[in-house]
TrEMBL record:
SUPFAM superfamilies: Acyl-CoA N-acyltransferases (Nat). NCBIfam families: PRK07922.1. This is Putative amino-acid acetyltransferase. InterPro entries: Acyl_CoA_acyltransferase (IPR016181), GNAT_dom (IPR000182), NSI-like (IPR045039). It comes from Hoyosella subflava (strain DSM 45089 / JCM 17490 / NBRC 109087 / DQS3-9A1). GO terms for cellular component: cytoplasm. Pfam families: Acetyltransf_1. Keywords: Acyltransferase, Transferase. GO terms for molecular function: N-acetyltransferase activity.
Length: 192
């Protein structure tokens, strides 16, 4: 016989909210940092487009909708002022990608807050290292990233990762067909 303990919803109305958590939000004096929602995607795209294609890879809307769960945003008065994503590359490794800050809000700490949240998310997922490919070496150095050479994975993992269709994974692996995308970028890693 099955025995169940604990509280369960008493009605259908209660059932609809059963198990739901309050959304994760970090509050700062000038903005909040929260998980991105699908309604944020057009605003995220506008922010990315400021920097694409010279600093960031261009992202089309469908790609952003497909990966919206990876994004965190800094929001100020209903405007998205910063964004960034954490993409899991392997069991112990993630990549911080697509970090963008509205030029009108540079220096307010929103980019740092978003990346800090991405690092915390990586820890929550059990990742041990986070990679970034960037022009913003000073910014990421201040957040604990260090410059690296090569690809910090075993040959077995490298072979398995080559099967990915994700351009970011190819950039991480430093594959020749993505070299034009990575010229001038610095490879950085942070141990968690």
């Amino acid at each position: 016989m099955l025995s169940v303990s604990g509280s369960f919803p008493a009605s259908l109305a209660d059932m609809e909210n059963y198990g739901r958590r309050e959304p994760e939000v970090s509050r700062y004096p000038e903005f909040i940092v929260r998980r991105a929602r699908t309604a944020d995607v057009p605003k995220i795209k506008r922010l990315i487009d400021i920097y694409a294609p010279k600093i960031l890879l261009e992202k089309n809307l469908v790609t952003l909708y497909e990966s919206v769960q990876e994004f965190w945003v800094a929001e100020r008065e209903d405007d998205i002022i910063s964004c960034g994503a954490l993409h899991v590359l392997w069991s112990d490794l993630g990549e911080v990608r697509t970090v963008a800050v509205d030029p009108a809000h540079k220096g307010c700490g929103s980019g740092r807050a978003v990346v800090s949240q991405l690092i915390e998310t990586a820890r929550d997922l059990g990742l041990q290292r986070v990679f970034v490919l960037t022009f913003e070496v000073k910014f990421f150095s201040q957040l604990g990233f260090t410059e690296i050479d090569g690809t910090p994975v075993t040959s077995e993992v490298f072979t398995e990762m080559r099967r990915s269709y994700d351009t970011g994974v190819a950039e991480f692996l430093d594959l020749s067909y993505v070299k034009p995308n990575t010229l001038g970028n610095t490879r950085m890693l942070r141990e968690l």
